[in-house]
Amino acid sequence: MTPEPEGRRHQTPEPEGRRHQTPAGRLAELGIELPALVPPLAAYVPAVRTGNLVYTAGQLPMKDGALAQTGKVGAEVSPEEGKALARVCALNALAAVHSLTGIDAITRVVKVVGFVASAPGFYGQPGVVNGASELFGEVFGDAGAHARSALGVSALPLDAPVEVEIIVEVA
Length: 171
Prior knowledge:
Elements: H1 23-30, E1 47-50, E2 53-56, E3 62-63, E4 66-67, H2 79-101, E5 106-117, H3 125-140, E6 147-153, E7 162-170
Parallel strand pairs: 5-6
Antiparallel strand pairs: 1-2, 2-7, 3-4, 5-7
Helix pairs in contact: 2-3
């Protein structure tokens, strides 16, 4: 038996019907609507393309122009709420990419960086950032497997509990 390639050991096989589905089609199948692009809060742009890579700015859990929740994970925000907020951040990151290339141009999620505003003694940052990682797996299948960093920080802009930035490969 041939060993699996490094970095692919914990992947689940894609269901038959998903192998040739577009990201937009998969979002629709999941009942997820891509949000509107979140306007920048300062002097930056939401995403930049260089060659076949798109880098997003850090995305906060904004819904309808406001933070979905504020506070630190492990205090005012539970880890489960933080995980759901990381998913919102990930959707906002996809909207930033979509604004440049369209969602269906994404061929691979390369890297995810998640920042978690953490109460003292909270060490569950990886579980919180799983909210973003799991969304990418649901939408992109094997192409959603990525390198990742999950960092605990003392504060984020606007008292956001979570911030996520991504690097994706596009066609």
